[in-house]
Amino acid sequence: MPVRTIIIGTGSQVPETAVTNKDLEARVDTTDEWIRARTGIQQRFIAGDHETNSFLATRASLKALEMAGVRPEKLDLIIVGTLTPDMPMPSVACLVQKDLGASNAGAFDISATCSGFLYGLSIADKFIRTNSNMKILVIGSEILSKRTNWQDRTTCVLFGDGAGAAVVTGTTEDRGILSTHLHADGSLGDLLTIKALGTATPLTPEVFDKGWQYIQMQGREVFKHAVRALESVVNEALEANGWAGGNIDILFSHQANMRILDFLRERLGLPSEKVFINIHKYGNTSAASIPIALDEANRAGQLQPGLRILMVSFGGGFTWGSIAMRW
Ligand code: UT7
Questions:
Q1: Region 173-197 average pLDDT
Q2: How many other C-beta atoms lie within 10 A of the C-beta of residue 44?
Q3: With a 6 A CB cut-off, is 193 part of the ligand 1 pocket?
Q4: Has domain 178-326 been given CATH number 2.20.130.10?
Q5: For domain 4-174, which CATH number applies: 3.30.300.130, 3.10.310.10, 3.40.47.10, 2.30.330.10?
Q6: What mean pLDDT is reported for the chain?
Q7: Is the CB of 219 under 6 A from ligand 1?
Q8: Fewer CB within 10 Å of terminal CB in the chain, N or C?
Q9: What is the mean pLDDT of residues 66-89?
Q10: Mean pLDDT across 41-63
């Protein structure tokens, strides 16, 4: 049997404070009805000042390590997918490495927006295939609330904060990650941006007035590309694994919009119980969305050995991709 990558522990952490759609009605010109109907979101968790990205990531990681029965010093590598790090340097991965006391681990962040966890898990998979004894911590963690314009109703109702983590290692049993497919199209990057705060555009008063320090999205355009890309990457993974006809047990798609999840379910002809949904509780948490979903399903006992699992994501960049695995 070839070496395959298995997930041996999952964990997640969201901030203490939940903000409901009703709460948002008091802040911007929106309604609970509009948000539910257009997105499926009912509430999201918003971080307080002490709940930094690395704080949530570390909490999620401790839970994943405990489930895996792996001590932090046994970790070989920490990979964090995030677009909202505590700071440009040190990386969130290094802050987590310090907080965990993972003294033998390398650590780095990757920038792949909402696909960050899947990109990170794909990288971990390649390491594991060359050394099956490695233990790697893969995290998706975001504080999107600090990059959200709370005066812009077209974006502020969509996003939430949180972190999810998975500990992976190798096996020669007939299970684990079967395929990874990563894609990107930078030519469409302008449709979903945080234009300032990098080195190309200093944060001048003019730039600040334009709101370029915040997430800006042409929602309807992004929606069109998201459904197309997700359908295509699902079909690519199904074909690669001989799972044609939607022959999967659970689909974990990035939780960006309930209507996107409904579209995928209909196109694949899947019953609703096979499409994991938690967007109503968390909103869009970008790179954290898939690992939080995975952890919820895992802790609820939904991930039984042998199940065929397909994870798919789409986000700014654009980036999109899939990972198929047998649990
Ligand atoms: O995670 C990365 C990937 N992200 C995505 O995949 C997100 C994809 N896009 C979407 O999910 C949807 O496009 C949104 C949820 C962002 C927006 O839904 P939509 O059905 O595309 O709405 P829209 O942008 O076309 O706006 C429809 C109307 C507009 O009013 P008019 O011009 O028709 O009078 C908006 O101004 O809804 C208005 N609107 C709102 N009304 C109340 C926009 N936001 C709000 C709001 N409350 N929060």
A1: 97
A2: 31
A3: no
A4: no
A5: 3.40.47.10
A6: 97
A7: yes
A8: N
A9: 98
A10: 98
Nearest to 98 by CA among 72, 66, 120, 80: 72
**What confidence score (pLDDT) does residue 203 get?**
86
Cβ–ligand 1 contact at 256 (below 6 Å): yes
* Upstream peptide bond of 263 is cis (omega within 30 degrees of 0): no
Phi, psi dihedrals of residue 123, rounded to the nearest 5°: -65, -45
- Does the pLDDT of residue 25 top 80, yes or no? yes
Residue pLDDT, tens place only, 79-122: 999 999 999 999 999 999 999 999 999 999 999 999 999 999 99
Q: Which atom of ligand 1 is nearest to the CA of 316?
A: 2
Structure tokens at 280: 């109503």
The tokens describing 275, both together, are 């499409």
Token pair in block for residue 28: 């911007």
8 A C-beta contact, residue 171 and residue 132: yes
Note if the pTM is more than 0.85: yes
Residue 320 CA to ligand 1 center (angstroms) comes to: 21
Give CB contacts under 8 A, 24+ apart, made by 258-265: 258/39, 258/40, 258/41, 259/38, 259/39, 259/40, 259/223, 260/223, 260/226, 260/227, 260/230, 261/40, 263/227, 263/231, 264/227, 264/230, 264/231, 264/234, 264/312
